[in-house]
Structures
1.
Amino acid sequence: MKYLAIIFDLFGTLVDSYSVQGYNKILTDMTSALELPTEDSSKLWTKLWRDTTYERGTGIFKTTEESIRYICNKLKVFVSNENIRKCEQIRLETTRKGLTPKNGAVDILKRLSGLGYKMGLITNCSAEVPLMWKNTEFSQLFDVTIFSASVGMKKPDPQIYNLACEQLDVKPNECLYFGDGDSNELAGASQLGMQAVMIRDPNEIDPYRLVEVVWDGRKIENFIEIMDLI
C-alpha cells in the first residue's frame, strides 16, 4: 500500500463546522442561561469565551463548568449554580448534536479500515468531545484518537502529529492526512512529512473557522475522492 495510515480531522471534515451565525446563537443562549446582570456583561462574557479558546482546547480548563466559572469570576458577577448548569447543558447538547457524521463519513471510514489501513483522528477540541465520544458513531472506527484537550496541545503543533504516528506505529511519510484546513492543520501535517489533503464541502454555508485557510496543495470535495488517492 502507498500509505499505512490515514488520519482525519473532525470538525469541518467528518462532521459539519458550526456556522458563524450558529456559533453566535450558541453563545447568546449560554449567556441568556446565565442571566447576567447587564447587556455589557453578556458581551464581555462572550468575548472572554472566545478569548479562552486556547485554554479549552489544551485542557487547561478540564470541564465545561470550569470554563464557565472562570469567566464569571473574571467578570466578578454572581451566577447561581443552577444557571451554570443550564449554561453547561446548552454547550454539552450542542456538542452532542455537532458530532453527527456527515453523509458518507462513516461509510468511508469503514471502507478504509476494511482495506487494512490504520485509522487515526486528530482534533482540536474542548473537554466535551472526549466526554461524549464513546456515544458517537465514530467511537469504534479509529485505532487512535488524539483529542487536544486530553493531550494538552493543539494542531499545528508538530508534537500532536508525532503522537498520533507513535500510537499508530507509523512514520509521518506513511500517513495520508485529511482536514478542512482550520488551525493551519494541513501545513502542520505537511511540514512533518505527511501527505496532506484538504477536504472541503463546496456547499457549506458561512463556516466558523479560527483562521483564514490558505492551502495550495491537493484538494477534494467529497469522501469518495479519497479512494483515488490511496
2.
Amino acid sequence: MLDVHAPHEVLHTWKGFFIHIATIVVGLFIAVALEQSVEALHRRHEVAALREDLHAESRQIVTDARGSEASHLYEIRWLTTRIAQTQVAIRERHPIGPREPNDMPNYVSPDIPIWRSAKAGGRTPLLTKGEVNAYAEVEYVQVHLDELEVAKNKARSAVKSFNREFPVLSNGDPDFSSATPENLHTYLGLLTTAYEAIDAYTHWLRIIIGAASAVVDGKTSLDEIYASERKVGGGDFLQNFM
C-alpha cells in the first residue's frame, strides 16, 4: 500500500482543516487507484502467461499422442501377426513358429502437468468458464487414458511373465518348441488381452488428439470439442463412453 503524508504546517482555520482532509482523501484515492492498476496489470500478465502455457501444453499433447499412436499401431500389427501364428499352431497341432522382431518405436505419453498445477494452485478462476470447461474435458480424457495405460502395461507384463516360463533362444526369444496345446491356448489368451488393451488405449489417444486439437484451434464449446473427438477418435467407439 502506498503511504499518503499530510502537510506538516499547523492548521489555524476551518478552511485549512478541510483542505487538509481533502488532501488526505484525494491522496488515498490516488494510492488505491494506483495499487488497483498495478494489481490489474499483474493479473493480466498472469492470465496471459497461463493461457500461453496451457496452449503450449495442448500442442504438446497432440504431438506426443500422435507419436504414441504410431508406436502402438506398430505393436498392434505385431500382435495381429503373432496371434495369427498362434491360432495356426493350435489349429494344425504343430509348434508355433518364431516371432517377428518387435522393434516398437519409442514414444512419449501425453500428459497435462501444467493444467494440474494450475488447478492445485487455484489459478483456474483466471480463465473464462469456456476455457475451464475445455481444459477439464481434456483432463477427463487424460484420466481415462492413464487408466487404460495401467491396463495395457499389466497385459504386456502378463505376456512377458508367460514368456519367461520357457527356455530362451540365442536371439533372446522364448523357445516354445515344447509348449503344450494348453500352453498355446494360454498364450493366445494373453496376446488377445494385450491386443484389446492396446487397441483401446490407441482409440483414446485419438480422442485426446481430437480434444487437444480443438483447444489449440481456440474452441471452448464442449459441443465443438466433442465433435472434434468424434471426428478423430471415431464416433462409434465414443458412443460407449459419452
3.
Amino acid sequence: MTRPPVGPEPGPESGVDGPVVGSYPTYAQAQRAVDFLSDNKFPVEHVAIIGSDLRLVENVTGRLTWARAALAGVSSGAWVGLLVGLLLSLFGEQQRNGFALIFGAVVIGALFGVVFGLVSYGATGGRRDFTSRSQVVAGRYDVTCAPAQAEDAKNLLIKLGWRVD
C-alpha cells in the first residue's frame, strides 16, 4: 500500500526529478547553495533540495517520573485553560469579570492537566520512563534542478567554491 503524497504534486519543471547539481553533507550547506543561486538571479523555482539516507534520531532529555508527569500536565493544562479563558472573556456575555474568568479557567485547566498527565503516565506501566525529542535527519542533501537549467546551476555553484559531488 502506497502513501499519498503530502502537498501538491511537483510540476514537470520543479527540479525534483532533475539531475543533481550539488550534493552536501548538511542541510545548511544545501540551503546556502540554493540561496547563492537565488542571489545570482537563477530561477530557483526549478530547484529542489532532496534529503537522502534518512534516519530517525531520538535524543533522550531526561527521566520521566510521577512529578515530571504532573508538572507537564499542569503546564499544558494551564495553557489550554488560559486560551479558553481568554476566548470566553473576549466573546462571553460577562466581560467585566474577565480577569476572574481567565484565572478560573487557568486553575481548572491546570487541575484537568495534572489528572490527565498522571493517568497517562500510569497507563504506560513503566514501559517508557523517559522523555525525548525526535527528529528526522538525512545523510546527505542533493540540490537538483530541472534538466533545462541544470548546466547553468552547476556552473554557478562552481563559482560558490564549495560545491560537493
4.
Amino acid sequence: MVRGRAVFTLSGLILFSLLIAGCEAPRPVQLLVGDQQLAALYWEPPRRLSPGVLLLPAEGEKKEDWIPLATRLRQEGYGVLALDWSEHDPADREALLADARAGFEFLRAQKNIDAARIGLIGAELGADAAVFFAAREPLARLVIALTPTLDDQVPRAAAEPALPNYGFRPLLLVAAAEDPRGSAAAGRLANSAPGEAEAWHFAGSAGRGLELLSPSVTNDIAKFLKKHL
C-alpha cells in the first residue's frame, strides 16, 4: 500500500508540473464503458494523421504512472491515451476488453490520429489484455507487452491462446532477465506467435511492468514503434 501511494503521489506531482508549465500536458478525459465513467489522460499529437498509442496499466496501477513514457512518445509525434481500469474484478476478461475497446475507439475518433496506425502498450495485466484485445481487433497495428504472463502462471491470462488470431502483426515482449516467470513468459509467447515476435530480456533488473522502463529500454521501445507504427 505504501509503495502504491508513493508512486501515485510522484505521478500526481509530475502531472501537476506539466499542467502548470503548459508543456505537452495531457488532457483529462472520461470514457463511457457501460454505465461507468472511465478516467483517462490524452496527449494530443503535434500534427494531423499521427499514429496513436493506447497504454494499459498493471493491476493496481494508474494512468498517471504512464506519464514519463507518454510524454516521451508525444515528443516523438504520437497521440497517446493512458487508461485507468474501471471498477471490476481483474479476472473479468470481458470487462478488461471493454475498457480497452473504449480507449481504442476514442483514439480512432480523434481528428489528428491516423485510425489505421494505433498500437497498444500494456504492463502485466495490461500486457495480457493488450494481446487479447488486438487478437479480436484486426485494426490494432501492434502490441508491446511489458512482463506478460502465461495461462499456467495466472489463470486469468489469455495472451497465449490469443496468438493465432493475433497473426503476423508486430509483437514485442519485454521482461527482466532476472525475473524468471516474466522472462519465461516472454520467451514462450515469442516462440508461440505465428509471426516474427521479438522477446527482449534485459539484464541487471528483476523489475516488472513499468519498472522495466529505464531510459535505454524506453529508447529501444521508441525505435520499435518508429519502425512498425
